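Input/output pair, single chain:
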Amino acid sequence: MKLNRTLLMLFNKLFLFLLLLVLLKCSPENPVKDLENVTVYSSNIQPVYSISLDSTATFGDSEGVPWGPVVRTIGVDKQDRVFVADLLGNKVHVYDSDGTYIQSVGNAGEGPGEFSFMWQLRINDEDLHILDLMQSKISVYDLNSFTHQNDFNVSIDQENQSDPDWVDRVSELGFVYQASDFEVLSNNNYLISFSLQSFGGQSNEGQTIETSIYDPSKRTYVQHDVHSFRADGTALFGEDQQAISDVIYKPRAQVDHTNDQVVYSWTEDLLFQIYNSMGAYQWSFYYPRESAVLDLNDVFTYYENRNNNEWMESAIRSNAPDHWPAFNSLIIDDENRLWVSSIVENQDTYEWWVLDLNDKGRLLATFPWPRNHDLLQVENGFAYFLASDSDFQKIIKYTIDLDGSI
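Output:
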């Protein structure tokens, strides 16, 4: 009799668990309902560790090595040398691990190893790879001698090769896509990302991020339509060509990659989808969490020095949601951890989440950090933040200490 009662209790618990799963999958507001192999975490999940960051070096412009006004990407090699992409200066400034300047590589121009608009860089074992956005070109420099080795034309418009499936579709929408990001794969091919650079319409809908694989040894694309991710724009449109190009409260696509995987997310939710470098979906994980309440005063404060007009204020107000997106940005580090800047009601800070991609996205740690310090890279046990204001830019290197279980 006691055994039957125990079995009945186990059956009831199993039934309730299965019912919960069915309700979760069928909920129209549930973002995971169409996904397979997804891990859903509790809404009150707590991190496993505490974390501390301690500054150890600073990299910045000086009279001898001036930076241009736009720095948005860096690279770090195995020797902890830091490579700072000076986008408008069209140079990469190289520093030793302690912040000592070594030299700069690259120049403005359209010749070999020259740049019109340096945009992204990647480092593998022996080489520095730099993408020029305007020329659709990747230039390669040797990491030991810093000499120019090669240039590769990664434009999608090349002779003697087929076009991706998306070319006609985006053309009909009035979009212009360019190579905007890349990754060096383990076989030394490039995974090239294409995204919107300009458009002639009055709609955000239909924008995507598309990827193709380029083989440098053959100097041609060997596979198109590898990944295709939703990337609807963040603009608002009005009559007479009125537009706000980037509305801060609109969700957007966030993508990062390593040499064997790609993480995609739409910032509306803490839902992260993992794909392999050949385009196959692998798994997902999701943290259900109510997003921070949006205060329109914070939005107007952001735009107060941007030539506001009556239409702009009306458009921002009438299209404003009740809540901010769940997060702002993400980055994968060299230990396969995902760093995510979640949006909180305090508009001066982000709450950073550190998630373990080796363990189904488990939450390792959280910490608050100033919004005007952008995380650019996490490599070899160090985090590199870009601190900037109207007068200066500098990159600060921090040691990462994950303490014992909380």
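Confidence is low (pLDDT under 50) at residues 15-28. The two ends are 43 Å apart (CA to CA).
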